[in-house]
């Protein structure tokens, strides 16, 4: 099967004085982890596996350029998701050869290999997939493929039933100079770090396991929809920091903490929660440098964050399994039963 033909052809973030400081640091760290112990589980031996990562990025770059056609054909069966029927597609072979010889691609390929060496580069993802197997024992563990996309920031991760396809060049670090050189905004590049890779993978799987988006009409629907995805990801990666989970900076998390009640008051005023105004919905759901309805210190996607708070409360009150949660569609019921009332 050839999943995305465009990408297949082009390949395509004194001690007494110290004690109070340390206590503050520990408190903040604990808060940042959002009570990680509440999410931790003991995995059964049958749930623990070591995943196999198919490094298309490495195997492709390792082909002998003096015998490129035969080298590409030799890996075509293993990487048919990228190459399709390359044996009979001479134009495709030419495009791939040109792709690899591009100085920009050559550089990010080498840099990706440095950040993600051939062995032991995906431990957090492996652990997350083990948690997925625990919660969804009948779900097929996806086959992992990594590749170089040419900085395809729209689709850093693609999940397709039994496959996870990861663009490693989207996780080279928030300070990676090529991100800045091509003009990517800082609020995005700080998430282009390897710490976000497992989280992005789990978010994509969550989106596939969540109910269809077509039921989302009101702001509260979208808030609960994304809140469920965040809760799912937290279950799969219990130790993930909330800053990484939400894509917020530490100062933005502090802003949320101090302004949670004010944000909620705004949302319930004039029944904005139940608005179908697409402009209002996008202000609370879409990504960006901040939420324009509040100060520039606020993070974006505040609706997703509040949605997670509601969903998290609901799960605690109802003691519901994550697989059951992902199939719920009544956002009003989840809101009511969450008893979410920040003060």
Give a structural overview.
The structure is a single chain. By secondary structure, the protein is mostly helical. It has two domains: about 200 residues, no CATH class; about 130 residues, no CATH class. The chain is built from 18 helices and four strands. It is globular and about 70 Å long. The relative contact order is 0.11.
Which features characterize this protein?
343 residues, mainly alpha, 2 domains, four-stranded mixed β-sheet, 18 helices, 4 strands, globular, disordered N terminus
What's the helix and strand layout?
Layout: H1 5-10, H2 18-32, E1 53-55, H3 56-61, H4 68-74, H5 80-83, H6 90-101, H7 103-115, H8 123-135, E2 143-147, E3 157-160, E4 163-167, H9 177-181, H10 186-189, H11 197-209, H12 219-236, H13 242-246, H14 250-268, H15 278-285, H16 302-318, H17 322-325, H18 331-338
Parallel strand pairs: 1-2, 2-4
Antiparallel strand pairs: 3-4
Helix pairs in contact: 8-11, 11-12, 12-16, 12-18, 16-18
């Amino acid at each position: 099967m050839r999943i995305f033909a465009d990408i297949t052809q082009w390949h395509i973030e004194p001690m007494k004085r110290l004690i109070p400081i340390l206590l503050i640091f520990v408190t903040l760290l604990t808060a940042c982890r959002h009570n990680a112990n509440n999410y931790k589980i003991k995995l059964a031996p049958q749930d623990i596996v070591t995943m196999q990562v198919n490094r298309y990025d490495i195997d492709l770059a390792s082909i002998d350029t003096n015998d490129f056609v035969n080298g590409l054909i030799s890996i075509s069966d293993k990487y048919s998701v990228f190459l399709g029927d390359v044996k009979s597609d001479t134009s495709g072979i030419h495009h791939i050869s040109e792709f690899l010889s591009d100085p920009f691609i050559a550089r990010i390929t080498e840099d990706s290999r440095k950040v993600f060496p051939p062995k032991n580069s995906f431990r957090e993802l492996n652990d997350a997939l083990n948690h997925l197997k625990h919660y969804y024992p009948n779900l097929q563990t996806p086959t992992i493929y990594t590749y170089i996309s040419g900085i395809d920031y729209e689709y850093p991760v693609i999940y397709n039933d039994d496959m996870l396809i990861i663009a490693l060049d989207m996780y080279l670090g928030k300070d990676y100079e090529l991100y800045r050189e091509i003009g990517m905004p800082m609020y995005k590049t700080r998430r282009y770090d390897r710490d976000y890779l497992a989280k992005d993978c789990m978010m994509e799987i969550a989106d596939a396991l969540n109910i269809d988006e077509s039921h989302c009409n009101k702001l509260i629907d979208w808030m609960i929809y994304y809140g469920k995805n965040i809760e799912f990801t937290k279950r799969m990666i219990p130790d993930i920091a909330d800053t990484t989970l939400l894509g917020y900076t530490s100062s933005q998390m502090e802003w949320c903490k101090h302004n949670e009640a004010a944000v909620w008051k705004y949302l319930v005023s004039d029944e904005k929660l139940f608005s179908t105004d697409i402009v209002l919905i996008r202000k609370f759901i879409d990504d960006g440098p901040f939420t324009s309805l509040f100060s520039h210190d606020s993070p974006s996607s505040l609706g997703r964050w509040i949605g997670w708070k509601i969903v998290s409360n609901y799960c605690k009150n109802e003691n519901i399994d994550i697989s059951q949660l992902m199939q719920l569609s009544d956002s009003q019921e989840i809101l009511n039963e969450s008893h979410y009332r920040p003060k």
